Amino acid sequence: MADDLKSGRIVVVGASLAGLRAAEKLREEGFTGSLTVVGDEPHVPYDRPPLSKQVLLGQATADTTELPVRRNADAEWRLGVRATGVDLTAKRVLLADGESLPYDRLLITTGTRARPWPNPEEAGLAGVFTLRTREDAAGLSERLSAGPERVLVIGAGFTGSEIASACRERGLEVTVAERGPAPLVGALGGTLSKLAAVMHRNHGVDLRTGVTVTALNGNGAFTGAQLSDGSRVEADVCVVALGAVRNVEWLADSGLAADPRGIACDAGCRAFNMYGIVTDDVFVAGDVSRFPHPLFGYQMLSLEHWGNAVEQAEVAAHNMVNPGPLRRPHLAVPVFWSTQFGLNIKSVGVPTYSDHLVIAQGSLEARRLAMVYGFKGRVTAAVTVDMAKSLDYYRHLIETGAPFPPPPGAADRPIAADVPVPSDVPDPSVLSHGPTVALTGHLPDRRLTVV
């Protein structure tokens, strides 16, 4: 049986960072069968973080962001063709060009796309951008190089904040509209978002919080926007940074546990079907996955992190070609980083899985600090601002389930001096999704009788 797993046909849908690293790992683990990678973009896998950083600053071009290849995956690359469905019974992936690919094992790494502006007519105005693909970055960078009068950024999450930072570095006037009380509040909670707001304003960003954009104006070309507080912003470029949408629509009739929150899988990356039964031949990795993590109460996590995509892809690849007893769980502690307004923000763990936080090192005033998050008396995350060398210490606390507030160690002042405060993380059910533990997102329905 183990030898059978090293041969046969494997199809990877998603020519992404996760797809590439999984393909390489499959060969490394001794897979000798046929390997096909399907991607809807015409490009070989490329790196997305530089798109909102170096490319927008004009320090690199979008076509230089190809990912380094670590080994020859000896795969057939089917690029520029979309997967439209999967037949679990016949074990075939259906493609937009009418062809279908048979598989013995399937890995889904379809990732996410930028959430579009909800009004297609307004989204189609010249000067309105989202930022996700190489083409997006090239078009936006070219437009910024032309020196617009003002750029409007809608949304102050990590991507929106990085775009605003790049615009200010280029000397452009920027208005940021954020529906929350401050930038990054959804990702890092209220305390650090206060520092983020100060940094935006100190760098000359016209930051509007607690408002939504109600309409984009223009006659063919974007000229400005209406805000929910009745004000109007005149601008000639608009970047819509409203987060990501998971690419699961193509699986609507597949019978897999795929919904807007992602595709649910077990800790070994095996996908669940809509009835909560684990499959043994369909695996999932990267941004599109939803998986249980023991360090975070076995909640189903969806992470859009570079490092998570790589580590989960390698676990999935290992498990696809090894028998049950040799399979391993995806246990990596999430790590994330962002550079904006001259600050280097690094995170380990899951800051949103918290009820309290404490500033363990530095201070908000100094703009150099380490903030530790806890949930029910246990350390669950840490975020550093210009203090990345402390991160390993906090990662160890998370991995060992250390008590919260943490003991003095990396701290440069007595922890007792700082009283834990509520982490002020928005209720996820109000933000964008329902209960985080929900397994399949499907209710038993008429399909049961079909089964």
From TrEMBL:
Highest taxon of source: Bacteria
Domain Reductase C-terminal residue range list: 336-406
Cofactor or coenzyme needed: FAD
Span of domain FAD/NAD(P)-binding: 9-313
GO MF annotations in UniProt: oxidoreductase activity, acting on NAD(P)H
Pfam families (alphabetical): Pyr_redox_2, Reductase_C
InterPro entries: FAD-oxidoreductase/Apoptosis (IPR050446), FAD/NAD-bd_sf (IPR036188), FAD/NAD-binding_dom (IPR023753), FAD/NAD-linked_Rdtase_dimer_sf (IPR016156), Reductase_C (IPR028202)
Entry keywords, A to Z: FAD, Flavoprotein, Oxidoreductase
GO CC list: cytoplasm
Protein name per the record: FAD-dependent oxidoreductase
